[in-house]
Amino acid sequence: MKNELNKPLDIKVKAYNRLFLKVYFNYAVMLLVFAVLLGFIFMKLFENSTMKIYSARLENDAKKISERVSEFVETDDAEYASYVEILIEMNAPDTDVWIISNAAAKNPMSDKFENIKIKNIDLEENHIQDVIQDTFNGEIMSKTCYMPIYGNTMRVVGYPIYNENKEVIGGVLLSSQKESQADTIDTSQKLIYISAAMGLFISFIIAILFARKLSQPIVKMRKTALILADGNYNVKTGIEQKDEIGDLATTIDILAERLLENEQERKNMEQMRLDFFANVSHELRTPITVVRAYVEMLVDGVVTDSNKVANYYDRMLKECKSMERLVGDLLILSKMQNPDFEIEKEPINLIQIFEDIIRSIHAISKKKNISIEISKEQESYIMLGDYDRIRQMFLVIIDNAIKFSDINSSIYINLSYMDKLIISIEDQGIGISEEELPHIFEKFYKSKLRQNATGSGLGLAIANQICLRHGGNIKVESMPHQGTKFTFEFDTCMSETELEEYETTH
């Protein structure tokens, strides 16, 4: 199973499932539907517009003919027959001109001015009765209808002829074959179809470029993700776009950086783990070796003197206590570093903790005649915390201060509160070198000073973890031969009112 997980990932995508084809196909279908719909609407509009323009032209021609015929009627001009003859020739073969007399008028136009007798035409059959009647009623009419006399669909326009009294004495009907305009429309449609085809062809090329531009960054990100999955975290997408794809590429690059950092951290943790086991083994090997040597000598009867036997037992006890202390420190440090470990917090008075610590180490400080002075601005400093853990944290610092201080020196403890609760512990000891200062909170780190020969190197690491688990931090200032100052900062300090409220609710 592990070998399968470690195999390089190379997921094949079928051709028809590729993003490029999907984007191109959808874009092309959208363009095609849009072009067809737009073309259909445009052709309908064009056809209607063409017919309206043509009808308007026929109406304008009918008006002119009507006005001219009216003049001939008033003057009884003999040239009228020639005019009609020329008029019919000019409009043939697409358009016929009918000049009809209104028999219902008071003074109807003379029959000699007619060029067609409507009584010889079946008006019902030709569907133009309405046009003629409305024209005689003084209306300008336009209608498309099928006329059997022509055997075709015709566009018919009627315009009334007036005399000088504004009476409708007749009408002019222009009938034109619709096919003549259909040819014009067909020709225009062909041009539109050719233009649409060229537009679609160009749009499809643009769609290919667009789909490629969209898919190529995604393909790069896919390859980058596969390389990341293989464990190479130095790879980058190399994509710089100010859009959502660019944001995604940047996110993948950030992920690669985080994975690289995590890998480095993992390696460091692995090295720390190995160093930890090595240090634990080293720390335990020495006392175990000593105890074993003493036990072997006692069992073999090499040492029989009662005083020496008692001395050996005493040394064996000290080594066992040392191992017990080491194991205890390791357990505490392990608990502090475990994120699931919960510290039980309650209101604690830091003044009480320091007084307890001073009583506990009085015998040790008295041997070196070291005085411990506490300065405070108020009688109590209350915070939420674990009494034993906080006591252990400060005890480590003060114990080190005594250990590394000269005889007849002083240790100063200062407590204050402004925005934060600040506790400083300053000694007048030998100090810490600049090279050692960054490493003092590391596990098993011990200086080469003789005062630290018996230490386990876990005290400051434990103190730092306790401080962090209480939401605080530690700052260290030190100069060789001038002393060391540890400063603790905590965000919370409880007032008497807050303490009363806490005790009431808990």
Automatic annotation (TrEMBL):
**Its Gene Ontology biological processes?**
cellular response to phosphate starvation
How is this protein named in the record?
Answer: histidine kinase
Give the E.C. number(s).
2.7.13.3
Main location per UniProt?
membrane
Per UniProt, subcellular location reads as: Membrane
One Pfam family named in its UniProt record? HisKA
Domain of life the protein comes from = Bacteria
Keywords, sorted A to Z: Kinase, Membrane, Phosphoprotein, Transferase, Transmembrane, Transmembrane helix, Two-component regulatory system
**What species is given as this protein's source?**
Anaeromicropila herbilytica
- Where is each Histidine kinase domain found? 279-494
Check the record and name the PROSITE patterns matching this protein: HAMP, HIS_KIN
Which residues are listed as membrane-spanning? 24-43, 191-211
- Membrane is among the record's keywords: yes
For this record, an example GO cellular component is: plasma membrane
List the catalysed reactions: ATP + protein L-histidine = ADP + protein N-phospho-L-histidine
Where does the HAMP domain start and stop, copy by copy? 212-264
